[in-house]
Write a structure and sequence with these properties.
3-stranded antiparallel sheet, 222 residues, 5% strand, Arc Repressor Mutant, subunit A, mainly alpha, DNA binding
Length: 222
Amino acid sequence: MGKYLLSEQDRATLQYKVTSKLREVILKGEFKMGDRLVQEEWAAKLGVSRMPIREALRQLEVEGLVRIEPRRGAIVTPISPEDIEEIYQLRALLEGEAAVRSLPYLEEEDIEELECLLEKMSALGNNEQDVEQYTKLNAQFHQALRRGCPWRRIHSMIDTLWKGIPPYTPSLLSNQLQEAQEEHELMVKYIKETNPEKLRKTIEKHILRTRDNLLKVIRTEN
């Protein structure tokens, strides 16, 4: 039980931490399809009340990682190949569109931020700690690409798609970070050249390549 217990520092952002922890254990395969995620048990394991567990389960239901059933509670529904197909196809379409619509609104400081994130990611290695840091920087990079997009709903849809497995893909595909980094560099190049079509195609290729490689991982493990 102690291995899951949240520290006092973690409790400063309690809801976020609880949701992240439950998402992590599901994505790591600690549950099988159809297993129940019992609120009382996880409240005790994390050292919190049932309320943040309940709120976390509602968020995970939106992400498709659990299903809330009357009288049974939260039933775990792990990511399937079909889920990967859907999530990454939608991401490719929506993120490509959002980045193109963001392009006219990006300021010089936005481009400088993207270049700074590129430098930080390029300086990282392949050990576990570096991959964890790369994961965070990668999420920031993709957010910065679309920051200027004026469409509110597209941001909301992309944010929902990112709350499942996408943030964890660098750790699953750590042997392919160099290829991902080269694609990131091309994205910044086309932003600086104000080339929307090449930017869109590079983002779509980047996300769909990740989809294909994730599907290989899932099918190999199964």
